[in-house]
């Protein structure tokens, strides 16, 4: 993994290129003082380049700065009604691609802060690191693999009060190092092809990556045990049961933090390593990119996805019921579940709360966090019609798993699966009117990580980290406030 380091000066000889991400030349006034040479280099270049502020990236030579060259990546306008912090992430990605063209090895990344987007520095750096990711298959086939950079410097630029309160000085590199590690693991699994990341090899990878860590791992892979305790998951795995590397596995990961525990998350992620469509075979181009149908578990569904998750969700529900000492429990499912959510929200995930979760405005708060960190989340509400849709049409069954048509041809095609999971798991008995209400949120993430075959950008992983982990660490003390 590429090493990151925080710096507060730009005259270090260890950096061979300076990368500046900014919304425009006018913001360069923030560089006055000890960063004046960088400001002058860009301002002089702007006199011969009239499109410098239009969202492009440029390589600017300069003898006045130690690195002798500077990459300027513009976000374009950030002041419009519908501009958001993702412009910084895109500018970071563009800067990373330009950096790779230079042959440099040790960049110094400077992102000019803005009051409007306090997470601009984080998003810019994540975009830059995204461009430097090398897929697992490529890393494994190169005998002496070398990362695309030796060292990345992060200039912690503090000129705005909001930034000062957002990430304490001297800790941004630590936070980004952790984000880079989690993103790489997520991409390794999520982007891996169906052979390299078959169920058995996902298990091998997880055991290797979390070896000697504080995470407790339990793998259930016995076919008879899965059939007995997870019958719906076993049904999904039937066609693969005779192929050792492709039959189902259930991976339990448990992490118990240090200090006071204020929240307990029970998360079920869908991990279908290749979605062929099952009995309703995906034909034409419909199977293209279906190796990413496991991204819900990587961040941590089609008809088969909701079945695969229902058993584990049921067990999680029972764990919550039994674990009366669990502080502030919250159940979640995360899945690349429906094409409907892609048509509905495009680049956004959809969050659906049950009654207890909605009572505390969980999805709304997650939406606010997503806006701050550039991984948008839309809130979808559940109605009685969604539950009625999954009522069985025959007397011999209680639930109908899905209709005959795909989600994209079904009214409320991504809300229905959430209702099905609530009913199938028994969470329908854990609502606000029950003796023991349990918060539950379903996240349908569609294709928010990016479409195959491009390298994925894990989402809504950053939003979940920012919402559940960041406020509890040394990095930040902040609160997302609902706008009434």
Automatic annotation (TrEMBL):
Residues 184-300, 302-449 form the Cytosol aminopeptidase domain. Keywords: Aminopeptidase, Hydrolase, Protease. The keyword Phosphoprotein does not apply. GO terms for molecular function: manganese ion binding; metalloaminopeptidase activity. The keyword Hydrolase applies. GO terms for cellular component: cytoplasm. It holds the Pfam family Peptidase_M17. One of its GO terms (biological process) is proteolysis. SUPFAM superfamilies: Zn-dependent exopeptidases (SSF53187). Belongs to the peptidase M17 family. This is Cytosol aminopeptidase domain-containing protein. It comes from Meloidogyne javanica (Root-knot nematode worm).
């Amino acid at each position: 993994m590429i090493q990151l380091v925080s710096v507060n000066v730009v005259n270090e000889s260890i950096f061979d290129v300076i990368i500046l991400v900014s919304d425009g030349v006018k913001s360069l006034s923030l560089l006055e003082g000890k960063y004046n040479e960088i400001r002058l280099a860009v301002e002089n270049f702007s006199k011969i380049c009239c499109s410098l502020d239009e969202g492009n990236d440029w390589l600017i030579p300069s003898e006045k700065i130690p690195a002798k060259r500077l990459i300027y990546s513009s976000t374009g306008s950030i002041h419009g009604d519908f501009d958001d912090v993702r412009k910084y992430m895109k500018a970071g990605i563009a800067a990373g691609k330009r950096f790779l063209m230079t042959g440099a090895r040790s960049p110094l990344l400077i992102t000019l802060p803005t009051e409007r987007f306090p997470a601009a520095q984080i998003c810019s750096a994540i975009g830059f690191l995204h461009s430097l990711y090398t897929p697992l298959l490529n890393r494994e086939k190169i005998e002496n693999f070398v990362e695309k950079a030796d060292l990345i410097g992060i200039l912690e630029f503090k000129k705005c009060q909001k930034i000062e309160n957002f990430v304490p000085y001297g800790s941004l590199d630590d936070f980004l190092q952790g984000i880079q590690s989690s993103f790489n693991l997520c991409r390794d699994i999520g982007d891996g092809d169906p052979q390299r990341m078959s169920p058995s090899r996902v298990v091998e990878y997880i055991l290797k990556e979390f070896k000697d860590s504080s995470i407790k791992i339990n793998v259930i892979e016995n076919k008879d045990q899965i059939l007995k305790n997870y019958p719906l998951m076993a049904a999904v795995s039937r066609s693969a049961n005779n192929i050792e590397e492709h039959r189902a596995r259930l991976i339990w990961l448990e992490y118990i933090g240090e200090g006071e525990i204020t929240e307990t998350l029970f998360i079920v992620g869908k991990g279908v390593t290749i979605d062929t469509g099952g009995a309703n075979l995906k034909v034409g181009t419909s199977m293209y990119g279906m190796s990413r149908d496991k991204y819900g578990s990587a961040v941590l569904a089609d008809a088969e996805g909701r079945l695969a998750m229902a058993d584990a969700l049921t067990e999680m529900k029972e764990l919550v019921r039994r674990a009366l000492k669990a502080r502030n429990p919250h159940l979640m499912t995360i899945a690349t579940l429906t094409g409907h959510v892609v048509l509905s929200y495009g680049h956004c995930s959809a969050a659906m709360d049950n009654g207890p979760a909605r009572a505390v405005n969980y999805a709304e708060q997650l939406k606010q966090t997503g806006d701050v960190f550039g991984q948008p989340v839309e809130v979808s509400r559940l109605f009685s019609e969604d539950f009625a849709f999954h009522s069985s049409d025959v007397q011999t069954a209680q639930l109908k798993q899905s209709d005959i048509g795909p989600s994209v041809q079904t009214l409320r095609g991504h809300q229905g699966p959430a209702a099905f999971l609530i009913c199938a798991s028994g969470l329908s008995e854990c609502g606000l009117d029950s003796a023991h209400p349990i918060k539950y949120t379903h996240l349908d993430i569609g294709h928010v990580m990016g479409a195959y075959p491009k390298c994925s950008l894990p989402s809504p992983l950053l939003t979940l980290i920012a919402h559940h982990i960041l406020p509890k660490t040394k990095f930040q003390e902040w609160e997302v406030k609902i706008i009434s």
